[in-house]
Amino acid sequence: MSRSLKTLFLLTDIGFLLYWIVTWRAWIPKDYLYQDYTNPLLVSWNLSFLPLDLLISATGLYSLFLLRRSDLRWRLVALISLVLTFCSGLQAIAFWSFRADFDWSWWVPNLYLMIYPLFYIRALFSSNDPATLQQTSTTPQSGSSTSVT
Question: What is the per-residue pLDDT across 47-67, written as a single tens digit (0 to 9) for each?
Answer without folding.
Answer: 999 999 999 999 999 999 999
